[in-house]
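Chapter review: from sequence to fold.
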Amino acid sequence: MHNTDIIQDYHAHIYFGSVTAGLAKELCENAVEQFGVKMGRMHEKPVGPHPMWSCQLTATTDQFAELLPWLALNRNSLIIFAHPQTGNDLVDHRDRGIWLGAGLELDFSVFD
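The token string follows.
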């Protein structure tokens, strides 16, 4: 078994504010169209460990291999936090995260 066999899928959280909500929605919708990923709701408040408004994209491991470089090139200064889903939410968010743009402090207390 490869260590990566424990990855069920990936989440990419697109962070935005009131001024950048349109940019974030467009980016997420384009990702759905181009890669077939699943788009969650546009949360206009911090949700879970996330310190800003966000929208979640869920990608298979194959989709994520193409999605991540595309997000890096097309994020238009939006901050993006991505992580694998292995069933260990705390470790996935705390130790396995990938930041595009500035890293932000997450609230890990939600996993207590």
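Two observations follow directly from the output. Residues 7-102 form a domain with the Alpha-Beta Plaits fold (CATH 3.30.70.1240). The radius of gyration is 13 Å.
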